[in-house]
Description:
- The chain is elongated, with a radius of gyration of 28 Å.
- It has 508 residues and is α/β, with parallel strands linked by helices.
- Helices cover 38% and strands 18% of the residues.
Amino acid sequence: MVSRAFTVAFEGVEARLVEVQCAVSAGLPAFSIVGLPDKAVSEARERVRAALTSMSIALPSKRITVNLSPADLPKEGSHFDLPIALALLAALDIIPNDLVEQTVALGELSLDGRLVAVLGALPAAMAAAEHDRVLLCPKACGPEAAWVGAAQVLAASSLGDVVRHYTGQSPLPPAEPGEVSHTAPGRDLRDVKGQERAKRALEIAAAGRHHIMMIGAPGSGKSMLAARLPGILPPLSAAEALETSMVHSLSGLLDEGGISRNRPFREPHHTASMAAIVGGGRGAKPGEISLAHNGVLFMDEFPEFPRPVLETLRQPIETGEVVVARANAHIRYPCRFLLVAAANPCKCGHLADAARACARAPQCGEDYLGRISGPLLDRFDLRVEVPPVSWRDLDLPDSGPSSADVAARVGAARARQLARFAGRDGLRVNADAEGALLEEIATPDPEGRALLLRVAERFGLSARGYHRVLRVARTIADLEGTASVRHPHVAEAVSYRITNSAAAEARR
């Protein structure tokens, strides 16, 4: 007789159902696992054997064969321990086979039979709900998996609890979802002295999810501004929280099974490798751009990142997803993030100060910012020059709106966009609009169109730059609560597209 249990194998954020078949037949005593298992799966034999021994269950002196189907799909991870143990117990008639077949299980076994938490419980629960099955997982993973209300989740502390559940001695209660956390940001936008133009640009970027680049001398407040961006963003919706948590589940970043409504804020160091930023490494894990999904990716000292790493951002910025290509698999991860880049104007950082600039100025500035390619630079909707703040200004009282005030305006603008894109899959903010839809929602008035055409001709805007100006103008109109895009909206959008240095060069 062949007994069956079910588990999952992960391909990105998707969990594919895997059938675990176990056959006990006559022959020389052996315990083999087939079906492209990796080292961790192959070692499950000894963990399962030891766990059963701790429960006083002896394996028969027969040949035990476990097959992981489909056999051509690579199986990786220690979460195969529990389903292998379930299939084996069903083959030995210790637990009912029909109940086991209705279960998707995952969990790592310790030698004494305890169940150890594993990664990916949330995507596994999604797969179980899709196939109308019960999910069985370690107790530590229960609060995380229970967020998928469409699937019943059973969380056990040990293999003994699992056996007592299936034999009817002590049924397991359904797991309860973890806490929903939404902590108020502790950093206020009013803490930044001056920089009113940069604050305005930050508000526009938050309202429409527009990528922004800030260039300024060291100490001008670029990092302070970026750190306060999450405080003006609206909380994650239920759908966004689930999307983000699935990626974080694969990376083991969910705290005690709870789901956060705060938007992610990732700030990788400029020494990070390509695999760390984009994804890859062992098992093709998600990188920083995917961990920042529906949140903010802050890249300080932008030109200091390796050139190949920067160039890999071009496609994810446009498509909202990244494909980690390997010889045996192509893994797809979502990565709709708001990119905030900060850079000094030159290597020494004092290009604008003749008294402090190095001897290579202004050539050093061109060389330094020249590390950022034109196609990548063209993908930034907003470019802001952040001037240094005088030490005298630091003694001035706080001015400008607080983060709560700005967040209210951003939330109202986001609500208008959600209503505008209702019923359109994959569209939530103005940054997602393109083609005929963009022309429909962001067509400016005659004066605004005439201004945009003059700017495009004067400064040589690309087609991408032209459309990004329209998107920003649409967001500015949403912040004002106006239905149409007018000349002032286009003028402000253009001002963030053309930096002061570029305008000076054009005048020459």
